[in-house]
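Chapter summary example.
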Amino acid sequence: MKYNKLNLGTIEAIVNKLGGMEGVEAFLSGNVKITVVKHTIDLGKAPQLPFDNAEVVKHESEINGKKVVEIELRSDDQLYIDGKKVVLHLSERQMGDKRIVGHELREELESGEQVLLNSNVLDYLYDHPELFPEHWKKDENDETRYIFFWGSIFRDPSDGRLCVRFLYWGDGALDRFYGWLGFDWYRRRPSASVAS
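The structure predicted for these 196 residues follows.
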């Protein structure tokens, strides 16, 4: 077979997507136009807050001078933003059994070469789980990864504590929450970024 990944279930899904046999016939006769959906994120849009009354301390609204970017999951299970691969970055001080306090990690990340993704990317992935890479779900030890989006930082006005939102795969679906910078970051808490 020329297309070895094609099976009856896939064929049925294609027929259904085209609107049944009538749609298939229209497609084969050249009367149907197929448009590839492009996913775009507005990085400049106000971020979703992690909790009521949270204040935005930082919100990086551009990547390489662009506020609206394309996001795609390629066939190699890698996520790209405007053609640049998204990487899950770990500090040297997060490797193995090491831990780093969130405030120290923030200083390190903000002085580094990578572009930190903001929480608008997190929310777009949450709303489009089909774009979430399979290999992001668990690490090499088969433990859940909690992926942080350091391009947005928030404050609790009642006590001044800072937090960063994260995305993770748990119980068969994506979920999101936030972590306080006063806590430790370890190997299961990478930062989502792209090269500058």
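To summarize the output: The longest strand covers residues 162-170.
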